[in-house]
């Protein structure tokens, strides 16, 4: 059973093992908030990714709509003015 150590943040530190080529099986203590921070970063990346996907879909729809109605009234589309 591992001993309970406190982290600098006040939580309990976690004992982990390195599996890198330079330090195989090296044990070290990590902050308990590491996983929470990683999860928060992943959520932020996911939100940003979905934002860009939605914007891309809207641009594609506007472009397709502009191309479909191009020249029907003799006026320029918004995309042609840009």
Automatic annotation (TrEMBL):
Entry keywords, A to Z: Membrane, Transmembrane, Transmembrane helix
Ranges that cross the membrane: 48-66
Transmembrane helix is among the record's keywords: yes
Keyword Membrane: yes
Protein name: Zinc finger GRF-type domain-containing protein
Organism: Prunus armeniaca
């Amino acid at each position: 059973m591992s001993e309970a150590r406190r982290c600098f943040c006040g939580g309990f530190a976690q004992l982990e093992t390195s599996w890198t080529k330079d330090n195989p099986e090296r044990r070290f203590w990590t902050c308990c908030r590491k996983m929470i921070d990683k999860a928060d970063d992943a959520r932020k990346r996911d939100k940003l990714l979905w934002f860009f996907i939605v914007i891309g879909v809207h641009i594609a729809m506007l472009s397709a709509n502009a191309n479909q109605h191009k020249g029907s009234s003799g006026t320029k589309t918004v995309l042609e003015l840009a």
